[in-house]
Amino acid sequence: MKLKNLLVFGGLLLFSLNGAVAKDSYYYDNNKKVGLIPLSKISRSITSQATIDFYQTEQGHEVGIYNKILLKIKAGADVQLLLAPNDMTVEEQLSPGLYLIVVPSNELAIDLSNRLSEQPDVEYAHPDFIKKRISR
Amino acid sequence: MVNKLLPVFFLGFLVACSSPNQESETPLLPVDPPEISLPDSIEDPFYQEQWYLHFDADFYNLYNIDPDAHIHAADYLIQHTGIGIKVAIIDDGLDLSHEDLQTAVTRTINVDGGSDVSHNSFDDFHGTAITGILGARSNSLGIKGVASNAELFFLKYSSNISDSELIRLFYKAEEWGADVINNSWGTGNVSQALKDTIVELSRHGRQGKGINIVFAAGNDSQDMGNDEASIPEVISVASTDEDNLRAVYSDFGRELDVVAPGGYTLGMTTLDPMGDKGIASIDENYLLFDDAEGFIGTSTSAPIVSGVIALLLEINPELTSTQVSDLLHNTADKVGTLDYVGGRNNYYGYGKVNLSKAIEALN
Q: Model's pTM, two decimal places?
């Protein structure tokens, strides 16, 4: 393990959230915190049986959050190293550096994406939001 | 008036009910475009009603339409048809069997799985209407699409889908070789990963020339805000009406690029799903300009611009996405009563798309 990776791993241990419950009431969008207000919880029945937690952003937009997040890492960063401390796994690489990540629970999707966002090797991370696409 | 607005605003909330299928990427038709012999005139029976494309004196006088309300297609829709250009449409469903789309759509994919992109319910029509404006075939049936020989791909989304699913659709369009991606939808709240994807493809897709990604601005008469249409690399399109002025419903903003006809008291004649499907009340296969369920909105303006881009790329396939944007900006008509400061304003962007001027600037 390179020294840089060792330092990153040490930092990641500080945000290990296994067994914790969600406490962040925001996510990062372009490095700015966006407030989230919990709404009701419904089941998604079309493409998966996953339960989705719905929130309203501080701008009034409804977003669904489930147990997946999107992570964009910087060139040369090790995605596995970033994920290991919190039992996160790569489901799919969508494009160079952009990954769809499975997290242990819906409740941890916000907190883990926020902690990843604060890592130096991460371009950005946010829940894999479910939104209404409105035909115009 | 209200009746005409209803179909625009009620879309996008219907719950998808199809079962996931195995994904299929098998082309529906051979990818190589067939040899096309261009006609001397346009024979599509509803072409006269397509006031948004061209000036027809009888029709314009009868309905008191501003003589410049169209995009000045002139004879260029005969000379250029988008042949050899691939246009992807991301929308809610398509009547693939429509008589005026035969041979038009060569690849389809449903975000919920498989390649069936049929509408979810009998009163869905949006994707079929959009596809018609953009690429209805030139024949003795119905209407003429702006790019009537472009090769079309249809990618069906569901009303509630994740960012990752939408990202996959954009990359699928790129994989299929799309030159243009039409998006007559939006969220008002684009996520960073989707924005990143759209920027990447519009800058570096199409073998480095950039995919031309077009978005409708929205129909809520409000600032576009953090919408997909506000991404600077996107070509965002708002609407003008039959008076050649900004349509009252049209969204606005500092990233608005251009306007194009979108209708208001007059609807946009286009396709409706065939037979008893769809919403049309006059001709069951077509949404006519005077249908009680007439189709208006920035959704209809975006495929006009996507079609125009296909014609420009037919003439010069090497144009980059930035060159296409510049061309549209620099040849747009400065319509409306607002000042254009530095060539633009937030309600009309750089002005209204003018096909004749754009083609003549290329030639």
A: 0.90
